[in-house]
Amino acid sequence: MAERIEIDNFSIDCVIxxxxxxxxxxxxIKRNTEPDFGRMALPGxxxxxxxxxxxxxxxxxxxxxxxxxxxxxxxxxFGKTDRYPLRRVITVVYYALVRxxxxxxxxxxxxxELHWIPVNEVPQMAFDHNELFEAALTNLQExxxxxxxxxxxxxxxxxxxELQEVYEAVTMQKFxxxxxxxxxxxxxxxxxxxxxxxxxxxxxxxxYKFDIAAYNKMLRKGLFFSV
Amino acid sequence: MAERIEIDNFSIDCVIxxxxxxxxxxxxIKRNTEPDFGRMALPGxxxxxxxxxxxxxxxxxxxxxxxxxxxxxxxxxFGKTDRYPLRRVITVVYYALVRxxxxxxxxxxxxxELHWIPVNEVPQMAFDHNELFEAALTNLQExxxxxxxxxxxxxxxxxxxELQEVYEAVTMQKFxxxxxxxxxxxxxxxxxxxxxxxxxxxxxxxxYKFDIAAYNKMLRKGLFFSV
DNA sequence: TCAAAAGTGTTGTCGCTACACCCATGT
DNA sequence: ACATGGGTGTAGCGACAACACTTTTGA
Lengths: 227, 227
Description:
- Two copies of one chain form a homodimer.
- Helix content of chain A is 27%, strand content 29%.
- Chain A contains five helices and nine strands, in the order ββββαβββαααββα.
- Chain A has helices at residues 55-65, 129-146, 160-171, 177-187, 212-220, and strands at residues 6-20, 23-30, 40-41, 44-48, 71-78, 90-98, 113-118, 190-196, 206-210.
- The radius of gyration of chain A is 19 Å and the shape is elongated.
- Chain A binds a DNA duplex through helix 4.
């Protein structure tokens, strides 16, 4: 295969969110090249000339995590002339939602260190990456109210308590257990899977799954989901 | 001044919205070069290497309309490899909201024809511009529910009926007059200007103005505006 | 039997919707 | 006087928030 050409003033950066140990976390890399050697940064890279824009973050994500077909959302494009010190680079920011259980840590060709960090503990990053990260988090928090993307952070089968925990982690609010369950069940976007938890040392919870058909039908009728 | 360098695989396109004759319209150009000669298209252009990203749509808008400091919102970035026939071009879409009364039609260097067209009558456009336009319109319709950007479409002083008309044009819904007025006045985001309409052949309406200070205070208290 | 989390209803309040008539002004 | 849009209040209903105890299960 011929060498592919990168568009060298045009990049993508990814904020990879995952839900783990009751917290919303994101995946960062530790830079091993100048500039900003040793600083944390968002995983990113340049877009190939013959590659669709959305294919670039997909490719980067696959390289880093081994995951395919994960949920990706475009956040925005950042293009101040001085945002990258070496030359003019415009970047498109995406966020991904992954099920941490499915994830298998990889180390790419460049032997990057990877770190999952809770979203309220992210360090000072390279370049303008803190700004990019905040934009992604804000976008996620807005989306979550009107769209059921949060299911991308959960395994296929989940309890209502787990669902509530994810919502609480993302929105940074607490919800009342009874009201939360009423709202979710009334919306019909989840359905009983018939399964229950196993290997828990207390009463096993019922497991539900996301009902995408019911959700789409709801949207077509002009209703919106909201938590 | 030295010739400025364009990044020739990176452009911006603008959807310029205005409110006129009770309708939401947008400004289109008729292409006078190949490819797609004679087709309607969104006004756009390439980004200069030494120009901040947001400066590019501002510049284009000034060239076309003579307006500065107008409201601009980034919608998204489109980058399929085949979206532009001549070569790989990634484009960032913005929309602008203008007061049509302030607008003075200009014809640029390239003697482009400009047309204001109601948003439900837009023709088949060049390239993927219909898709870009739909993305902008959808974004505007979503924003309008949570943010008072719609005031950018109105003159400084406006009646509540005019405000209602704009909301109806943008959201494509009808509102009840009494309920609408209650909601707007309760929100405190408009205040009485003391003025009234003149040159109308019926009872003159009170004129209001947008109260940005009250709006910001409202946001800080964690409330959201919604129509 | 204890610990730990699952699961479950009711009441009050507030906000939204639906709805029709009189008022002021210019011609 | 008439035509045109400006301006106003209420009642019913549905959605949401607040709130605490019993049940199941495994250790």
